[in-house]
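Quick one, probably user error.
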């Protein structure tokens, strides 16, 4: 089944309330965030195919701003990593990552080490389309400079 088509209403109809309940227990094929977005978009009278024209305009502006070699550093989220269950409570922070999915630009998540409480820190490295090599190169340099991924606990093998 095409999950995008199902959620966006272009495929077979799904019961959003039922899918939401299933998602809470990890039984849905959809994330809570996508179900919530689908539910909100059904209630928004301005949500239609014309919104995609706005996305293309925004993408053009963003890419013009970056140029062929620009890099945009953006937080990975509104806060450091959450405990496992807390992500359900704070599910509206998906905007930190989904905006770049909508724009169709390459992003590399770069680990920067741990904060004073031992929680992982990171940043997203974003570039214009087809510049994945730039995001990877910058992420590699940042990772080297800031310590990169650090195990949050001792791992015994």
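Nope, works fine. Designed sequence:
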């Amino acid at each position: 089944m095409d999950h995008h088509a199902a959620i966006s209403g272009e495929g077979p109809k799904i019961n959003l309330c039922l899918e939401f309940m299933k998602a809470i227990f990890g039984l849905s094929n959809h994330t809570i965030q996508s179900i919530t977005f689908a539910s909100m978009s059904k209630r928004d009278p301005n949500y239609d195919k014309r919104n995609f024209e706005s996305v293309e305009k925004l993408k053009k502006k963003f890419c013009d701003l970056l140029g062929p070699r620009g890099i945009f550093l953006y937080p990975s989220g509104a806060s450091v990593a959450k405990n496992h269950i807390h992500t359900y409570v704070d599910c509206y922070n998906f905007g930190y990552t989904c905006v770049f999915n909508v724009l169709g630009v390459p992003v590399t998540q770069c680990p920067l080490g741990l904060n004073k409480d031992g929680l992982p820190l990171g940043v997203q490295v974003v570039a214009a389309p087809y510049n994945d090599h730039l995001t990877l190169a910058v992420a590699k340099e940042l990772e080297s400079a800031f310590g990169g991924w650090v195990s949050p606990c001792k791992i015994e093998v």
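The two ends are 40 Å apart (CA to CA).
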